């Protein structure tokens, strides 16, 4: 079967690693990102077969843009077997700074509204076919809030809850909803972090485990498993102990701060 994967945020990091893993498995690719030219340059550099992928330049934070890309994918390549809503942004914020409220709004526009808009064009067609996988990329950061990381943590908590809701809605349709929560992955998104990142993982190793998870149709997984254990412990940790544990932890860089 000549299967197709639609992947957002495919111009860097996890998105590229997932695209390469799917290509290696023989899938065709629909690659979406704002920087379409960068995808083309990368695809040629790693030797992706030109007749096996198509690039859709779009802005996930713009509902009209990302839904148009989804419809264009269906028209040009058919209905995907997997839609991976990977695009996301991570910027520190301080609620006492008025400008950072816009950071919160922009984060939710990309990480949450953009995720739902990514799925939207494909749902009816997948339901009619009776198969497919809608994959939301969450984060272990969505399990408990980290100081200075309110926008990202809350957005990823919302990804987890949204995908859980969608999974219930599509339960009898044959369409799987898969939530994958990465721990720390060595990508441009994490390299500027000024705090320790336990169990840091290479993007290609993450992509391999994510690919297997999606193929198995699992509903939820934290990758790597060690971060899953840590996340469960943090979730049940009493608030006073959790707050003490994070006291003095460096905050996420805010927009415009030096690194």
| CATH architecture name | 3-Layer(aba) Sandwich
Give the averaged pLDDT, no decimals: 90
How many domains? 1
Q: What low-confidence regions span 5 or more consecutive residues with pLDDT below 50? A: none
According to CATH, the homologous superfamily is NAD(P)-binding Rossmann-like Domain
The top-level CATH class is Alpha Beta
In N-to-C order, the SSE pattern is EHEHEHEHEHEHEHH
Distance between the termini: 47 Å
Give the strand line-up of the largest sheet: 3-2-1-4-5-6-7
3D structure, described in words:
The protein is of the alpha/beta class. The chain has a single domain (4-246), classed as NAD(P)-binding Rossmann-like Domain (Rossmann fold). 47% of the residues lie in helices and 15% in strands. The chain is built from eight helices and seven strands, in the order E-H-E-H-E-H-E-H-E-H-E-H-E-H-H. It has helices spanning 13-24, 36-46, 63-77, 99-129, 150-169, 203-216, 225-236, 239-246, and strands at 4-8, 28-33, 53-57, 82-85, 132-137, 175-182, 220-223. Strands 3-2-1-4-5-6-7 form a seven-stranded parallel β-sheet, sandwiched between helices. The radius of gyration is 18 Å and the shape is globular. The model has no long low-confidence stretch (mean pLDDT 90).
